[in-house]
Amino acid sequence: MHISKAIKYLALCVILPVIVYACIPNNNRESFGEFPDTPTNLTEFNTEYDDYNSTGPSFGETFPFCFSSNRKSNGDHYDIIYKLMSIEFSKDDRELRIFNNTSGNLSVVIENNNIANAMNKINTSSDEFGPYLIPRGLVSGSSNPNNRYESYILMYSSEHDGNQDILYTHNLDDESYLEPIKIDFLNSPFDDAYPSLNMDNSTVFFSSNRAGEYNIYSHEMDSSQDILDLLVSNNAESRLDTVLSSAFDDQCPFINEKILVFSSNREGGFGGYDLYYALWEDNEWSAPINFGEKINTEHDEFRPIVRQQWDFNNDIMIFSSNQPGGMGGFDLYYVGILELRE
Hints:
This protein is mainly β. The chain has helices at residues 4-15, 17-22, 26-29, 107-112, 115-122, 227-232, and strands at 40-41, 51-55, 62-69, 79-89, 96-100, 128-140, 148-158, 165-170, 181-182, 192-197, 203-211, 213-220, 239-240, 250-256, 259-264, 274-281, 284-285, 289-290, 301-307, 314-321, 331-338. β10 and β11 (203-211) form a beta hairpin. The longest helix has 12 residues, at 4-15. It is globular and about 50 Å long.
């Protein structure tokens, strides 16, 4: 495994982001947005309670943003919350705005309103964590003014039956979501959570404490089949990923193309849970690399996700942290990291 590329990636995205900017041709430089290389609080999405464990599909300037929060229960248990996030960048004054979009006349708002129905189906009086939205495209036939809706497969975990199990629901056949279904081949008598598919849907990664500490596991699938068919029936066995896992707690894997990010409290970090990444190279994941002190603190950084953004020269990573200075408990933050394109 070649880790030199991974080390170079970290140096560029965390230590020397100005180099990335300088590599853009002068005539195009001002036309691209830039996410800051130090974490910024997503104030419009946070509360005095714990807000963390988010997901967001990798398309669009306005997109569904789901995350776990104990705000509705006043700190008692965690539900999955649905908001619509917009990312806007002004090429004139270089101002970046990330906000909760509540403009009801936008098509993206109207066609995603069905996700609120999904929240009603999946939330219980127990903890729901780690939402993972898989977009499946527009479907015609709806009671909304546009007569069409966005369809999704929504994976997540719930503690409703005593331990965290991975489930899914979808609205592929009707705008209303199905009652949640357990993904039996991913679950065990222990806690199983945070599913994420690799770039060709041939493997699902997740975290589990079935061996004691939390580790990252993978489960191979037949990528020639439809995702929904794979979730219903799969006879393969889940295996411990020995490259990504350690003797400590490794949780919340999330994949975007050739980068996998996750949280770990392994030795060598800056304290509590830190954020790490691995790169896909030569048909395997590199040894994990810490994102460094610009992003990690002595407190807990948790559940990172990465998405590309149109007209930006770096990618956005959204994560959670209980570092001081937030609105209370865990807050959602964002930061820019070097985009990976090959």
